[in-house]
Amino acid sequence: MGRSRNPRRERGGVQAVVEQVDGGLAELIPDRERARGWTLLIDGAPQSYVDLDDPAYLSFEYQRRLGHVIDLAAPAGKPIHAVHLGGGALTLARYVAATRPRSTQQVVERDAALVQLVRRELPLDANARIRVRSLDARAGLAKVPDGWADLVVADVFSGARTPAHLTSTEFLDEVRRALRPGGLYAANLADGPPLTHVRSQIATAAARFPELALVADPTVLRGKRFGNAVLVAGDLPLPVAELTRRAASDPHPGRVEHGRALADFTGGAVPVTDAAAVASPAPPPSVFR
Q1: Half-sphere exposure (Cβ direction) of 52: Cα atoms closer than 13 Å
Q2: Is residue 25 assigned to a domain?
Q3: How many folded domains does the chain comprise?
Q4: Average pLDDT value over all residues in the chain
Q5: Tens-place pLDDT, residues 210-248
Q6: What are the CA-CA distances from residue 215 to residues 80, 173, 189, 202 (Å)?
Q7: d(Cα 36, Cα 12) in Å, to the nearest integer?
Q8: Is residue 12 part of a domain?
């Protein structure tokens, strides 16, 4: 049976696209404010935003924070080797291509039908050096050569939850193998009170990387609401001061924790192994209302 394609409604004369993909019901909703802006939703949960006219524009709060990490991964404009675990609408790969021309990128997105939909409706720049593999994130990471990546970004959700096998020390061993010395790892974490998942992920990363920072909305860090936090890790000192400045200047200012404050925040959390790993918590329904 073929996959259904059902344009749903118009915004400003542009039709939304609704299509069943492997991970659920995908919706591409046109932006009323930006002529070629689109939001991707899967089963009603916002996944990505893309402006085809301005791929350097990052709408989602957590993606802006990942954008800061991309900006600080190397001198401005310098091409990098980047691995994206989780593709969505390829927002961050487009951002790297726009801000760091001639970069070489690998995107691992398990949902092959979603990749087809995005390529068809939101085509990539023909000059972008972006290869997309339709594989499980960990299996795709295993295919990256040793020391190839300047940056590995993990932004993988299945049913709005990060799969368990992408939360362990064994997974981070694969990340470290793929990274060059001095490379950066950045992960989008989603959690709510009492932040058990975020704390365990900090402890897990600390077992494999000597340098860590966490960027999030202060209300999320205080355990007041469910939200996203960006974990940054590396084997050399991180650009904490500049990351702090950029996060503070965001439309929704973020706070950066690192060093002793981050260790204290982690509390008594212990590293997660494959044997004990569980998926991240499901967001409450109110998050997407």
Answers
A1: 17
A2: no
A3: 1
A4: 94
A5: 999 999 999 999 999 999 999 999 999 999 999 999 999
A6: 22, 23, 10, 12
A7: 11
A8: no
Residue 148 sits in a domain of what CATH number? 3.40.50.150
For the packed helices 240-248 and 61-72, what is the interaxial angle rounded to 10 degrees? 150
Determine which helix (DSSP H) or strand (DSSP E) holds 246, and give its type and residue range: helix 240-248
Among residues 199, 189, 226, the alpha carbon closest in space to that of 62 is found at 189
* Domain assignment of residue 175, given as a range: 60-280
Q: How far apart are CA 278 and CA 97, in angstroms?
A: 34
How does DSSP assign 100-152, residue by residue? STT-EEEEE-S-HHHHHHHHHHSPPPTT-EEEEE-S-HHHHHHTSPTT-EEEE
This model's pTM is above 0.70: yes
Phi, psi (deg, nearest 5) at residue 87: -110, -45
Q: Is residue 21 part of a domain?
A: no
Residues paired with 131 in a beta bridge: 106
First to last CA, the chain: 32
Give the pair of three-digit tokens for residue 272. 């997660």
Q: Which residue has the tokens 């593709």?
A: 87
pLDDT one-digit tens code per residue, 96-117:
999 999 999 999 999 999 999 9
Judge whether 30 lies within some domain: no
In sign, the C-alpha dihedral spanning 126, 130, 136, 140 is positive
Q: What one-character DSSP code corresponds to residue 171? A: H
Cis-peptide, bond into residue 194, ω within 30° of zero = yes
Give CA–CA dist 206/61, Å, rounded.
25
Tokens matching residue 98: 């726009």
